[in-house]
Amino acid sequence: MPATIREAIGDELYVSISQIKAYLLCPRQFELRYVRGVEPEFVPRALAFGIAFHAALAHHYIDLRDLHVAPTTEKLIETFRRAWALKLDGSVPVQGEDDEPKVDPLDLAAKMLGKFVENAKATEQDLVVDAVEQPFSVTLVDPDTGEVLEEKLVGAIDLVAHEGDLTIVVEHKSAAKKYGVDQLRYDLQPTAYQLAMHELGWSPIGLRYQIVTKTKSPQVQIENIVRDQQDEDDFLRVAFGVLKAIDAGVSYPVRGWQCRSCPYQTACAKKTS
Ligand code: SF4
Fold first, then answer.
1. Fewer CB within 10 Å, N or C, the chain?
2. Does pTM surpass 0.70?
3. 7 CA to middle of ligand 1, Å?
4. Cβ(268) to ligand 1 under 6 A?
């Protein structure tokens, strides 16, 4: 297996799951970001927080894999602090939404990581870590026509582990609240991971969400989810549809909640064509 996304894709054309999801959310935002290369006005605070939180969880699982000992909560908080500081020091300012609750991100992360560690101690006795941030690059085949796309699907899986004989693919999330039934049922990301794992010959596999909430008293929501062949085929149909639309230059604004945290608002308002 490749060690990095760059190694996984080589010189190939590629599309990531987040690019597909970005196009579905707002084709104009996709165009401004990926086609025109417009510089974002800011990094949404929730995105920066999520990246730093992921770094802390990756630290936990890398230590479990390499040292077979979980790091302390303090070490994870320190990893979060460093990753957060990197975001704050970046060339693009980090900015929250006006109506976002004013909480200290370090305090919030400390509470969330404390809860995460408490939960991990209680539930991870049988978990053996195989890979952290595992990159993949797989071929996309239209389930209806057999057409093979030039672009490969690329991404990185937060955690690949096993419990007994079952390989588990885990997606970490930090979220304002627990995921609801529809979010768990229809999110494309785990479907894409399952498709990738099948292509790479890892089976049988289980899919799991590990969500830590940003609530006053953080909660850890563990959800084992199922995706079937229909879900995989539908994901491929979505990927093909999105890539054909991108190739045809289809772009239009989708106004909604996503506009509040969109870092391309000025460019979007100026765009006339
Ligand atoms: S402001 Fe709204 S419509 Fe415009 S690019 Fe951003 S998300 Fe899309």
1. C
2. yes
3. 33
4. yes
